[in-house]
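Students often ask why inverse folding is considered easier than folding. One informal answer: many sequences map to the same fold, so there is more than one right answer. In these notes we will look at a single instance of the problem. The structure comes first.
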């Protein structure tokens, strides 16, 4: 079995670390604050932008999974040094750098998103995500590192909380039979990437040399609108159907005065005002992982949220 380093322990980092541990590997998780150890997982507290310390923590690793994510309002400032440090660690240790990406880099597009689209984002968050991957790909092509990026749409599923559009802002209200509010058009088709599939794709490409040097979309079920997903969640919860209300621009404008997160979401509003559909057929043609069927996603998510809310009282 191998040693793997996972940067970050948010939903994706935690799911990836636990999947690797379940497979019998040794896992070292790097976060700024550290945590208590759990079976198969060592937690190390360090600033991942400190390349010297990250290199030390990554010695002997077969792969480094960069699942870290700076606070949303600080993306443009914090992503470049974090990404540069990860590249430095990959170069110094020879570990494969497996990057968790998203779809921001494409910017608004017409039609389903494929990996062949240019990274043509005009907003600062989209541009910085494109730059981070371009840096790693350039180093890969120069033979200095081995790098691969896995891109996901909006996370959905057990473990997804504050950052998910079908998570903390929806599930507690839905389980009480109360209306929920959504950003953008609730009837626009939207791709939701199931969190366990994100972890599965990250782990799979780490061991697939033919994947390296490229970006891949996580296997994702066909797009469903926010309203359709809420209806499925409500049905599985055995609650009455709940109303899905669109947050009006005026309300968002007022909220953005007080909430840095909502203020920053203005750049990516297009993702919810129009169809936002990912095509993962290239991954599925090349590798083994398939998207978890949506009914299984919904069942597991409802069960996880029920347990979470009961535990919180």
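Output (designed amino acids):
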């Amino acid at each position: 079995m191998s040693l793997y380093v996972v940067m970050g322990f948010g939903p994706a980092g935690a799911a990836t670390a636990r999947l690797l541990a379940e497979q019998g590997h040794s896992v070292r998780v790097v976060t700024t604050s550290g945590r208590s150890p759990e079976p198969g997982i060592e937690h190390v507290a360090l600033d991942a932008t400190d390349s010297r310390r990250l290199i030390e923590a990554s010695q002997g690793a077969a792969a480094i999974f960069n699942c870290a994510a700076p606070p949303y309002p600080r993306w443009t400032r914090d992503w470049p040094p974090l990404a540069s440090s990860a590249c430095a660690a990959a170069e110094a240790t020879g570990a494969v750098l497996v990057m968790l990406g998203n779809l921001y880099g494409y910017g608004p597009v017409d039609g389903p998103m494929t990996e062949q689209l240019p990274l043509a984002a005009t907003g600062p968050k989209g541009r910085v995500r494109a730059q981070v991957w371009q840096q790693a790909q350039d180093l890969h092509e120069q033979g200095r590192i081995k790098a691969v990026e896995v891109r996901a749409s909006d996370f959905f599923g057990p473990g997804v909380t504050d950052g998910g559009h079908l998570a903390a802002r929806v599930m507690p209200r839905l389980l009480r039979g109360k209306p929920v509010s959504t950003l953008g058009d609730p009837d626009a088709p939207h791709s939701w990437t199931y969190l366990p599939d994100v972890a599965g794709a990250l782990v799979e490409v780490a061991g697939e040399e033919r994947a390296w040097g490229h970006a891949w979309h996580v296997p994702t079920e066909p797009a469903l609108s926010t309203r359709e997903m809420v209806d499925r969640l409500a049905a599985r919860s055995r609650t009455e159907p709940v109303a899905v209300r669109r947050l009006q621009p005026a309300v968002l404008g007022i909220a953005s005065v007080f909430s840095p997160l909502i203020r920053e979401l203005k750049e990516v509003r297009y993702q919810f005002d129009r169809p936002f559909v990912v095509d993962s057929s290239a991954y599925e043609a090349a590798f083994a992982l398939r998207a978890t069927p949506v009914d299984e996603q919904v069942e597991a998510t409802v069960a996880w949220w029920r347990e979470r809310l009961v535990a919180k009282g």
